[in-house]
Write a structure and sequence with these properties.
Blueprint: E1 5-9, H1 14-25, E2 29-34, H2 43-51, E3 56-59, H3 65-74, E4 80-83, H4 90-95, H5 97-116, E5 122-128, H6 152-169, E6 175-181, E7 183-185, H7 204-212, E8 219-222, E9 234-235, E10 237-239, H8 240-256, E11 262-267, E12 273-274, H9 275-286, E13 292-295, H10 310-316, H11 324-341
Parallel strand pairs: 1-2, 1-4, 2-3, 4-5, 5-6, 6-11, 7-10, 8-13
Antiparallel strand pairs: 9-12
Bound molecules: nicotinamide-adenine-dinucleotide and uridine-5'-diphosphate-4-deoxy-4-fluoro-alpha-D-galactose.
Length: about 350
Amino acid sequence: MALKNILVTGGTGYIGSHTVVELLGSGYNVHIIDNLSNSDRSMLERIHQITNKIPYFTQLDLRNKIDVFKFFEKHTKFDGIIHFAALKSVGESVFQPLKYYENNVVGLLNLLEGSSQNNINNFVFSSSCTVYGSPDLVPVTEHTKFGHTPSPYGATKQMCERILDDYSYSSSDYNTISLRYFNPLGAHDSGIIGELPSGIPNNLMPYITQTAIGIRPYLAVFGNDYSTPDGTAIRDYIHVMDLAKAHVKAVEYFALQTGKVNEKINIGTGKGKSVFDIIHSFEKVSGIKLNYKIEGRREGDVESIYANATKAENLLNWKAELSLDDMTRSAWNWEQKYRKEG
Ligand code: NAD
Ligand code: UFG
C-alpha cells in the first residue's frame, strides 16, 4: 500500500530540509517535528519557496515524553516516520556525553513509544558510517562489523540501530531501515537551502566555503601523512540531494514489501576522495585559490572509509548520481547566496 503521510523529525535541519523538499516534490504530505535546537523556523518558508508547499510543523522536543505522547494522541494518521532529529557534533559529544545519550537515545525511545499508540509501522533511521569505526578493510559493506567508535555520538548511532533491531524483533509487522550515511555535502541547486552550521564549522565543506568567503582566515588540513595516495584522509562524500532521494526510495520500498523489513543500508557513492580532492574541486568550480595550511592529524579521525553501495542499488533502486564538482559547486552557490541575501 502506498504511503502518503510522513512524519519527519528534525525536518528543519540540513539533511531533513532537503529530504522534505524531495518528499513534497514526490507528492507526500509532510509533518515536521523539530525543537529548533540546531535549525530555524524560517526553513519552512525556504521550503515553501522551492516547492510551493508548506509542510505541517510542530515545535516539539523529543526528550519530553509527555509532549511526544500528546502529539501522537492528536495526530493519528501517519504512514511512516523518518527520524533525523539528533545532535551530531562528534567533538562536542566527547565532552558532553550525557547530553548526547539523552538527546539521541532517549529521543528515539520516546518516539518509538509515542508512535506505537498509533500503529505507525514504517521507520527510517538516520544512521552513519561512524558505526564502522576505523575499518580494517575498505570499502565497507553492511556486513562489516561495528567498530570501536571513539565518540559518544558514534555510540548513540550503534545503540539506536540495536534498539530498532530489538523493537523490530518484538513485533510481527514493524518495518525499519537504517540508512548509514557517508559524508553529505552540498546544497539544493536553488541555493535557497543548504548547510548552516552554528558557530565555527567542524566539517570540511562549510569550513572551505567560509574560508573562501572571508569569514575564516584559512582551512587547516588535518594531516598529510596518512598512507593514502596524496597523504590526506579519505571519505565517501555524497551530495545531500542524492541522500535526500535515498529517503524517498526507502519510503517507496516499504510500500512495495509484503513481508517485514529490517535493513541497514550504506548510502554513499562508493568512491573515496581525499581532502585535497575536495579542495581542488572547490578551486576548480569557484575559480578561487583556497588559503590552507597543513596541520597535525585531528584526534579520532579515521584514515580511510568509503562505501560499498551496491545494496542500496539492488534493494532501493537508488544510486548516487551527482559528482564531486556538483557538490562543491552547490555548496559554494549556497554560501554566496546566503551571505548576500540571508
Ligand atoms: P542538523 O543538526 O542540521 O538537523 C538535526 C535537526 O534535529 C535539527 O533541526 C535539530 O533542531 C533537531 N533536533 C535535535 N534534537 C532534537 C530533539 N531532541 N527534538 C526535536 N528535534 C531535535 O543535522 P543533519 O546534518 O541534518 O543530520 C540529520 C541526521 O543525520 C542526524 O541524526 C545525524 O546524526 C545524521 N547524520 C548526519 C551526518 C552529517 O554529516 N551531517 C552524517 C551521518 C549521519
Ligand atoms: N578536515 C580537515 N579540516 C577541517 C575539517 C575536516 O582537514 O577543518 C578533514 C578531516 O580530518 C577528515 C575530512 O576532512 O579527514 C572530513 O571531515 P569532516 O569533519 O567533514 O567529516 P567526518 O568524516 O569527520 O565526519 C562526518 C560527520 C559525522 C559523521 C561522519 C560519517 O561529522 O557526524 O561524517 O557520516 F558520522
